[in-house]
Amino acid sequence: NFVRADALHLYPVLFPINDTDYSIALIQRWDEMYSGGGMTEEVADFLQLKPQGKYQQIFQNIPFSVSRMIRACFSEQDYAQSNEQCHDLEKLVLNIEYLQANTWRMKYHYMRTLSPSSDQQPINQRQNYLLNVNTADAIQLPRAWTTY
Q1: How high is the pLDDT of residue 6?
Q2: Which of 1, 23, 38, 101 has its CA 20 to 30 A from that of 32?
């Protein structure tokens, strides 16, 4: 497996913190490549914008997105019965809803679509979290979403 942590980048959206202040998302991205597939994962730190170019971290290590492609065909028979659809695909999408000062609803949607040759189970689930504390483990995604 090859893992690469890309440079940090800013997500181009302002997220409200209260009636007058905003934050930005500083995204850390990891790419992992392996035989027949790969994964991209992003986590975000949210930084409140302050005067004179200063900032303050308000939320840290928040799961932001995941995209995985996992090989599912391993034999000639697998390829034949899968009609060349030989990868399981996973996607985690986040929508953020401002509720009140320093409180967001984090709306996650996790989807797993499968190759006909897959030995996994499809998933199409949504989970909401209330985010109002700055701890590295404020959001714990379901185990079925984070392990394959």
Answers
A1: 66
A2: 23
Instruction: Please list, in sequence order, all residues whose beta carbon lies within 8 angstroms of the beta carbon of residue 127, skipping any fewer than 6 positions away.
Output: 108, 110, 141, 142
Q: Which residues are CB-neighbours of 143 under 8 A, at least 6 positions away?
A: none
Query: What average pLDDT does the structure give for the chain?
Result: 91
Question: Looking at residue 36, what is its pLDDT?
Answer: 84
- The DSSP bridge pattern shows strands 87-100 and 103-113 to be antiparallel
29: its two tokens = 């991205």
3-state DSSP of the chain: CEEEECCCEEEEEEEECCCCCEEEEEEEEEEEEECCEEEEEEEEEEEEECHHHCEEEEEEEEEEEEEEEEECCCCHHHHHHCCCCCEEEEEEEEEEEEEECCEEEEEEEEEEECCCCCCCCCEEEEEEEEECCCCCCCCCCCHHHHCC
Confidence of residue 65 (pLDDT cuts 50, 70, 90): very high
